[in-house]
Amino acid sequence: MADLKECLTDAGFSDLETHLATGNVRFRTPLRSRARLEERLEELFQQRTGFAVPTIVVSPSELREVHDAATALDVDAARRYVTFLKEPLSAGAKAEIDAWDAPGEGAKALDRAVVWWLHHPTQAAKFSNAKVERHAVATTRDLKVVATLAQRWGGAAGRAPTGT
Predict the structure, then answer these.
(1) Mean pLDDT, residues 134-140
(2) Sheet containing strand 160-163, strands side by side
(3) Residue 160 has what pLDDT?
(4) Choosing a second label site near 151 at 20 to 30 A (CA), which of 22, 63, 98, 141?
């Protein structure tokens, strides 16, 4: 995370804050286009690491909306996750995810996120980030991490947290 902060600081990003070793960072930038910002970050990370690092930018309001939608689902599950998406899912992919019906598992597609839950250990799950990645570039976080990020960064106007 220190290297991530150094990379972004060197590139002119400011007001950086990371959260543990999650790959999430909040920053300020004059760039306003999400697509252009993702492209710029991916260029920086490629230069820094020597390999592609798909990057998903989520605005503070999007982060709050996803968190609120995830917690509003009336789901009593041992484990809950949010998979953030680079682009919205197709109607067919949304329908496939919303219809997921494995014992002890469920999922709900949002605009640029998928909320999924398990009543058993993750290693026994049939649903995973890989299932979503068949349809879109995606990154998954535990709902507890999303709650912390939404609390810390979900209301900070002009700041953009990212998942890398």
Answers:
(1) 96
(2) 14-18, 24-28, 160-163, 56-57
(3) 52
(4) 98
Token digits of residue 144: 């507890």
Task: Check: CB of residue 131 under 8 Å from CB of residue 121.
Answer: no
In whole angstroms, what is the distance from residue 140 CA to residue 123 CA? 15
What are the phi and psi torsion angles at 88 (to 5°)? -60, 150
pLDDT at 155: 77
CB 9 within 8 A of CB 16: yes
Spell out the domain ranges in the chain: 2-58+155-163, 61-153
Q: Record the tokens describing residue 118, joined without a space.
A: 């398990």
Residue-wise DSSP of 32-75: --HHHHHHHHHHHHHHHHSS----EE--HHHHHHHHHHHHHS--
* Sheet of 138-142, strand order: 105-109, 113-118, 79-85, 138-142
Is-above-0.85 flag for pTM?
yes
